[in-house]
Design goal:
By secondary structure, this protein is an alpha+beta fold. Helix content is 31%, strand content 28%. It has 7 helices and 11 strands. The protein has helices at residues 13-25, 61-74, 91-97, 130-140, 152-160, 201-215, 230-238, and strands at residues 30-34, 37-41, 52-54, 80-83, 100-112, 124-125, 166-170, 174-181, 184-192, 220-226, 242-252. The chain has an 8-stranded mixed beta sheet with strand order 4-11-5-10-9-8-7-6, with helices on both faces. It has a 3-stranded antiparallel beta sheet with strand order 1-2-3, covered by helices on one side. The chain is globular and about 55 Å long. The chain starts with 12 loop residues before the first helix and ends with a strand.
């Protein structure tokens, strides 16, 4: 798959907007701009917040990649590109030529916010509690190495705090995060502790976030999920989400 050109045809602006929605909902505390590309960094916590967001036409494509590589080398991080539906034409081929590995093919899924009811007893708070943070980090944080003076979880908290959002916690061990973005609600941080899985808790969190987003005036919801996460994919499909687009990462091997 690495040798294939992933996006053969241009995509319309409605689809390409998800690159910007995801970036805004998961904002990297560190950012630098270069001709329509954004270098994002957050202590290595999540590829989404530690990668180049490469949007728009680039006449200087090889030189632009060179500059990105120098930037990340300068801060001691690997150079990673998020290649989404609005990525610069020709970029994926250039990265393949340089030996970048394709990592984490990801689906963007959407559904209209109609006919959803919140789970009984589930509240949506405007900030994450310590219990919420422990649950989320306990499920998701183990893959993030400590790389500097700032603890990895602190970087995660900085990302979460970069934009207003709603937080759902079920005491049995499930959490989720919703980000109102105009007509869209972004769904993030869906996590269920291992001991609490297969009990419908993820469904309860998701439905509560969707109902909350509808009250905030959103018309549709989106989320992103790796293709390899078949359990989450099955849940989202049952709840009416369908695939609207795709993106992947390229990592220097």
């Amino acid at each position: 798959m690495d040798e294939e050109r992933v996006y053969e045809e241009p995509v319309d602006e409605e689809i390409a907007q998800f690159d910007l929605l995801v970036d805004a909902a998961w904002p990297a505390p560190g950012r630098a701009e270069d001709g329509g590309w954004t270098y994002r960094h957050a202590g290595g916590v999540t590829k989404r917040a530690n990668s180049v967001l490469p949007l728009g036409e680039r006449a200087d494509l090889p030189e632009a990649v060179d500059r990105a590589e120098r930037f990340y080398a300068g801060i001691g991080q690997p150079c990673v590109f998020s290649v989404g539906m609005g990525a610069s034409p020709g970029l994926d081929d250039e990265l393949v030529r340089r030996g970048y590995e394709l990592v984490d093919p990801t689906l963007v899924m959407t559904r209209p916010l109609t006919g959803v009811e919140p789970a009984a007893g589930a509240a949506v708070e405007d900030r994450p509690s310590e219990r919420w943070l422990r649950t989320w980090w306990g499920v998701d944080g183990g893959r993030h190495r400590e790389t500097g003076e700032v603890p990895a979880r602190t970087w995660g908290e900085r990302i979460l705090g970069g934009v207003p959002a709603g937080y759902v916690l079920l005491d049995e061990g499930a959490v989720g995060r919703g980000v109102p973005q105009g007509r869209w609600l972004g769904v993030y941080c869906m996590a269920v502790e291992p001991h609490a899985r297969r009990r419908g808790l993820g469904t309860g969190v998701l439905r509560t976030l969707l109902a909350w987003g509808r009250r905030w005036g959103a018309d549709d919801a989106y989320l992103v999920v790796t293709q390899a996460n078949t359990g989450a994919l099955a849940l989202y499909e049952r709840e009416g989400f369908t695939v609207a687009g795709r993106y992947h990462y390229r990592v220097r091997s």
